[in-house]
Amino acid sequence: MIEVKDLTFSYGKDKQVLHGLNFTVGDGEIFGFLGPNGSGKSTTQKILTGILKGHGGCATLFGQDISRVHTQDFFQRIGVLFEFPYLYANLSAIDNLKYFSSFYPAKRLRDIGEILEKLEFKMDFSKKPVSSYSKGMRQRVSMARSLINNPELLFLDEPTSGLDPSGAVLFRRIIEEERKKGTTVFLTTHNMLDADLLCDRVAFITNGTIAALDTPKRLKEQNSSHLVLIEYLYQGIRKEKEIETANLEGGIPFPHDEIISIHSREPSLEDMFIQYTGRGLC
Amino acid sequence: MWKNFCSLLKKDFQIMVDGKFFLISLGSLILYTLFINFGYIRFVNDRLYNVYLYDPCGAFEQADKLIHPVESMEELNAALSTDTNGVGIDASLGVPEIILYVGKEKVDHHRADYALSLLQPGGKYTARITGTNTKELKQRKEMCCELLFIEIVAVGFLGIASVLFKEKQMGVIRVHGVLPLEMSLFLLSKMTIFLLSDLIFAALMAVLNIGPWVTAGILPAVLLQTAILSLLMALTGLGCAMLLNDFRQFSLAYLVIAFFVSVPVFFSANTSVKMAWIDWHPFYQIYMGLKNACFGTPVINPAYYIRCVCGIIFLFLIVQAAFRREMGKEG
């Protein structure tokens, strides 16, 4: 679906933000693009969606070079959720969606009411102006806008930003459902939980270069110390011990009266990110 | 494409209604009409400068009523020291001698000629009258043209920029970059709606203040000049709104542009002061085009229209480039 080779981009003469990115995204894959602010995530997305011109290297979408692909037909096939919920504040959710959907052919369109319902939008607000909505509600309308044309390729930039935990769970479920229908998802985020739970593969981007690219599981495994932390009681005293998982094959290899808990010490995706890029996500 | 254009028009119309743009335009129309009909026509007379005459011999007893007679040279000097724009005539020797505070040479000649013309009203200074404009109709046409120019240059320009700033602040401009939509339509819809609004405004202004029968004869030419001015100002407004970061910056630019566009134009067109470079001022040409259209002598020089079309295309390309830049902005 997406193939990127040696992609470079500069804002002006001096500010190069992408330094030769290489990655592919397969059909029906959820691909996570992870990085801190200013790392080049949004720039990459803007190049792929045709908003930014003047890149170096080459990239193909739907099997066509991006310099030729950004036609009206292409925009009918993609959906884009921006980092911020860009909506007409004076119009209602319904009017916003009616307006944005008016640019797509009728055969591509989903039912506005149905999609809002699926996103658990409070329907009593549907005719009130967007200016009266909470951030979570605006994000739901934005998500509905990006899905309204049944996209084959979905670009999502921080989709769960501004949502409460239950809203984030709902969004993850909807993204998963879209993938099951065959939609390819290009997820730009610095939310490690989203990436870990949703993505088939993730790329860590920092300072315009990809520091690592693999499945979240493999990235964690490759760097796992295979340690477990055991909390136990021995002679009335609460103690903790970290041991290699290989040493557990013959049972707990130290004297104890009672085991309180056993936790694996595998690294999180965030630990991996810091390890690969040398910086945290902020 | 037509469907997309209609969607954009509908949305822009909605934003303008919500922004009370049409209400403001209607208010302007009422205010201008009241001013022309109940202010300008009634109370503006021919008095350009005050003229004071000291004529102890009574040599100029037929002088115009607009002249202020004085009894002594002291009184004449006192009047001129308080009214420095005034013109004094000392006729104590039977021959008029002009006394005035020296200003700009051409203006001084104009003031002197005006003062002398009042000494012999209805005499050899009376010009042969051509055309069908009465004095009142001439005044109506002049003021209608000036107010129409101000409305489009200042009010319309501000209106279009405020609409675009709203969209810029809401971030929705960026969404249009990923819609199956020809980007130029986004700009064309705004230009169209402002053009229609200005054309309707111009037609109503002319009908209400010049009269429907006279308007019928000059309307096509007036609308053509209005359209040229409207498109140029709409594109200038769009360009400023795209390139400037916030409304505060825009307000400053607005003052500079509105000042640059209107002040030298009005100064040159309506006073005896004419700057040497004014013929190079693009809006002076358009203002004169509008004025000539109001007076039934529309511009027929093709070079003028070619220059206008080139200007519109040039501005459109700049605005389009600024639009792309706005969508691709960092962050």
Structural key phrases:
heterodimer; A: 282 residues; alpha/beta; Rossmann fold; 2 domains; 6-stranded mixed beta sheet; 13 strands; globular; B: 331 residues; mainly alpha; 4-stranded mixed beta sheet; 11 helices; 69% helix; 5% strand
Poorly predicted regions of chain B are none
Radius of gyration of chain B: 25 Å
The largest chain-to-chain contact, stated as pair and per-chain residue counts, equals: A-B, 30 and 25 residues
Q: What's the domain count of chain B?
A: 2
From the alpha-carbon coordinates, what is the Rg of chain A to the nearest angstrom?
Answer: 23 Å
Order of helices and strands of chain B: HHEEHEEHHHHHHHH
Q: What letter string, H or E per element, gives the SSE order of chain A? A: EEEHEEHHEHHHEHEHEEHEEEH
The number of distinct structural domains of chain A comes to 2
Q: How many alpha or pi helices of chain A? A: 10
Strand elements of chain A, count:
13
| CATH topology-level name of the largest domain in chain A | Rossmann fold
As a percent range, the share of helical residues of chain A equals: 25-40%
Can you count the beta strands of chain B?
4
Our estimate of the beta-strand percent of chain A is 25-35%
